[in-house]
Amino acid sequence: MPGFELFGDLERQQVNDVLDNGVLMRYGFDGMRNGHWKAKELEIELKNTLQSKHVQLVSSGTAAVSVALAAAGVGAGDEVIMPTFTFVASFEAIMMLGAIPILVDIDDTLTLSPKAVENAITPKTKAVMVVQMCGSMGNMDALQTICNKHNILLVEDACQAIGGTYNGRPLGSIGDLGCFSFDFVKTITCGEGGAVITNNKEYYTNADHYSDHGHDHVGNDRGAETHPFLGYNFRISELHAAVGLAQVKRLPEFIDIQKKNYTILREALSQIPEVTFRKVPDGGEESYAFLNFFLPDLETTLKVVDAFKVSGVDACWNYYSNNWHYLNKWDHLKDLKSLFPISTEVKEGLEYLKTKEFPESDHYIGRNISCLIKLSWTEAEVYERANKMVTAVKTVLET
Ligand SMILES: Cc1ncc(COP(=O)(O)O)c(C=O)c1O
């Protein structure tokens, strides 16, 4: 998914615009800017791309998740349902607000199992956070129905899924709020950056103020602005926004390349009966950032990952024992290793993690291989890669 593979003159020109007028901050300094408002411009581009009424840029995807939850009023003691397979940022962002992450099983979509979500709802549940991992999505209709029934928020972490759609709508724009990351390894990058999107005016205003110390952004004298409520600094800089502005215009080109490369690899692997693919819900189209497939069992899967490495097929992972993406290795969360005291409410709320097992998640993540799709491969390289992958899988299956 890395937009960083393809940047050059367009990004340089946007960054130079900012350096030439010298205003690196997104707010204020109106007189010095010579009309350059890169963060504002990027927000407008993203509104169009993501078909959302409101976009608030922030400093990272992690910030986007925290700001989105805060904007909708999630806080101390509230429970937020999230999947066992995600990036550590999901529980970090929830815990930053004093809320409690409730991890539940995934299904063959590699994100929230609607049944597991339904079973985890309690009177304290404030939000369900579906993480659109590796460019694809959960069963959004089923998740939305559950959230409507229980009157809880549906938040989409679409940090890894820009460019994917569900029933023709961009991922991230389906729930009450959507979150994006533009860190260095995302489909489009700002270097570091993120965005919250929503069609709800109040959530947007909250996100706008909260991400800038609670400033109300009224008028053009920053020093005279009032603070309707407490906030923090999750601002993006003009330099980062400038890079993103060049990148967002290239998103369709990046998605086309990803799709082409993904399709060649998928068609090759489809010849092997033991290989099955991650389920994309009806009406969904992936962003093609990753190709995810399943093998019969964990042992075979680990052998195939090793065989890929030996044959020079890089960037393919089994996440079962991965420190960043699967709960098996999140001992710092289970043991509550925190630099500062954690509230009793959160400590008690996380007790379940010491004993709870997640057999469905183990079943899917144990057998999954997730292959990054790069933009810089030539067609010949993709075909060579496809051949090596097929040979490696067949060889492991035959031994
Ligand atoms: C699913 C998901 N959520 C959130 C994040 C956090 O994004 P950032 O690195 O911009 O803080 C990431 C980053 O990898 C991610 O993959």
Automatic annotation (TrEMBL):
UniProt xrefs under InterPro entries = DegT/StrS_aminotransferase, PyrdxlP-dep_Trfase, PyrdxlP-dep_Trfase_major, PyrdxlP-dep_Trfase_small
Q: Name one Pfam family in it.
A: DegT_DnrJ_EryC1
- Cite the EC number: 2.6.1.-
Which is an annotated GO molecular function term of this record? transaminase activity
Keyword annotations: Aminotransferase, Pyridoxal phosphate, Transferase
**EC class (word):** transferase
Family assignment from sequence similarity: Belongs to the DegT/DnrJ/EryC1 family.
Task: Name the chain's protein.
Answer: DegT/DnrJ/EryC1/StrS family aminotransferase
